[in-house]
Specification:
By secondary structure, the chain is mainly alpha-helical. The protein is built from 20 helices and 20 strands. A hairpin with a 4-residue loop joins strand 17 and strand 18. It is a single-pass type II membrane protein.
Length: 603
Amino acid sequence: MRWRSVVLGLLLARLGLQALLALLPALARGLGLHPRPPCPGPGPAAPALPAGRAAPLWGPARGDEYERRYSRAFPPQLRARLRDAARGMFVFGYDSYMEHAFPRDELDPLHCRGRGPDRGDPSNLNINDVLGNYSLTLIDALDTLAVMGNSSEFQKAVKLVIDTVSFDKDSTVQVFEATIRVLGSLLSAHIIITDSKQPFGDMTIKDYDNELLHLAHDLAVRLLPAFENTKTGIPYPRVNLKKGVPADSHNETCTAGAGSLLVEFGILSRLLGDSTFEWVARRAVKALWSLRSNNTGLLGNVVNIQTGHWVGKQSGLGAGSDSFYEYLLKSYILFGEKEDLEMFNDAYRNIQNHLRRGREACNEGEGDPPLYVNVNMYTGQLMNTWIDSLQAFFPGLQVLIGDVEDAICLHAFYYAIWKRYGALPERYNWQLQAPDVPFYPLRPELVESTYLLYQATKNPFYLHVGMDILQSLEKYTKAKCGYATLHHVVEKTKEDRMESFFLSETCKYLYLLFDEENPVHKSGNKFMFTTEGHIVSVDERFRNSLWEDILPGEEDSAEKTKPNELKAANFSSNCNRVPDERRYLLPLKSNYMRQIDQMVGLI
């Protein structure tokens, strides 16, 4: 028997009756019925519900495999065990680094030794862009120690940094990596130490004299030459910490690398009362923004800093672009400059108009699931059929602006890939249903989005996701001394490298996901995470500056918002769109979950 309409029965709690629904019609593509085009490629159609069975509006039919797996109770005891497991993961990685690698930058977890810059091969940018011979992993992990409440180790680590770290090194590093990993962590730890409320316990340092702030200032000064002798104001990608910009430096940089410095540079400027750092970072953002396409409003991913010509014309949400959008919003959240929100809102609309494929709504309608693809910045035409793991941050960013429904769908897509491989391949081809670049360097982006979606919805589904991720990391990446990069997500072979963001982000977000009583959630303070996962308090001191008259464009946007007025403009979506009655059901209907699992070749 076929039904031609869906009969909705409303569940009233006071009546204690279960909603009655008629059969849903067999689902067809119906792609022409939706204003957004379908996801390109031969993705499978959503399976029809079996005839004769009614399905609840939210969540799967009784006995459905998704309900059995994800709608189980998540008792406090299990959550506490997983919190402790996440802490244990961090401790094993951190202790292994301190025992076998410190004071070098990173830990080689297979051979239990440290590594620093590759002096023998300056062209080895995969290593040399990140490792500057300044105890990177120790610095990057500082605020994770505080968030986990380990005051004694935090104080010990801070003293080690003060006593042993110097940036007077003949090291050529990427400006972006040094900023987000090192500068950001020094500033975060300084803020934690000097916070009069001490929300994480006593993290004060006896006789502390702003040494971490002075180190941050010294590093930032050494990065400033990257902003000199550039005709556009967009910085060079690399700088030597002793000598400035190398003579053979390239004139090409990526959008994210040049445009994701404003949070850290802005914090430093406002703590020091010196506009220089925020000024150069903001100038770079505005220079990039001015180069967007007149037709689509999109930006490319690689630009010539002298001519302003786009070398890479791909517009996407992954590597080369990701944190540019993230920092437009987070700069607004932290500093209250409305022009940052205006740029973000414009960018987000253009992303929705040109990058988004699939059905209009996440949790209703027909067609392929929503997906954000890589397009030509000038035409909006599809450029390739892959996405990369860095894009998994985007659902978390959508949570911050209140677009929770769309975040739920995109997160489910990345989680399905994780379920298939027990990790996220660096690049995944959604048309071929296979990895294009198969390694996984312990990246945090999926964990970050999982954590933020849980905070927005309080849906236990995301605790199950976090448990899956934690168990996969333990099963596939744990090594003799720490946790190792997966060289191949299918074969599960390992590489001898534990990147510093594993401790600063991956472990932190897992821990916070399961630690409901953490001061981040309970202290009454407002916090924001940088793109490297460093925690920063959102308060008035970062909303006051003494240089409105000299920052570029300030004359048009002097109005600021207060911390309790943060709200993205021009969006009907908000966290309240996820009603309370859905919080203990699946966030995505089971037929749509099954559709996504089929799309990635999981079933």
